[in-house]
Amino acid sequence: MAYRNGTYIAFHADGTNIPCDSDIKYYNLIKAWTSKKEDQFSFINSHEKTNAVRDSSKKRTLERRLKKRLRNSKNMVLILGETTKNDRDWIPFEISYAVDKCKIPIIVAYINYEYITAPKQFSYLWPESLKERIKRGTLSAIHIPFKKAPLSDAISQFDYNNKPKGGSLGIYSKDAYRSFGINIK
Length: 185
Hints:
By secondary structure, the chain is an alpha/beta fold. The chain has one domain: Rossmann fold. The protein contains 6 helices and 5 strands, in the order E-H-H-E-H-E-H-E-H-E-H. A 5-stranded parallel sheet has the order 1-2-3-4-5, with helices on both faces. The radius of gyration is 15 Å and the shape is globular. It starts with 5 loop residues before the first strand and ends in a 6-residue tail after the last helix.
């Protein structure tokens, strides 16, 4: 049995490794938050628990490494932007393996939103693999904005033993958002 203490972060790379041209910039921002010593933001990055995978790696090699990273994870952050739903290979694979095989909750972090109180209104952003599991009710998820305080709280709080309340459409309360310093009506 794998030691499941990491957080797996999934994002749409949009066929590039140029940071400004894809959602990798948000992954890098999370890593930057972690590196600030005076900051409270911390997590164990599942991507750093196995050997690096180069862009030239064979698909089978990459798939094996991703599976290992997911098996070593307690939860998964899905960075959700405008183009995430267009990913036809790795995002669907990561979601299906995380939910169906590893049984870990997904922290769905929406880019460019202050708060998330009605996740269904953002269904147009969902990749099919996420949409299917929400519809079937096989997913345990919390839907949050891509902001440091709610992300830090969700990463530290939710795992395979402590899943978000609300099934596939879990959200934070207005009081929780206020405690994060986010103004909500």
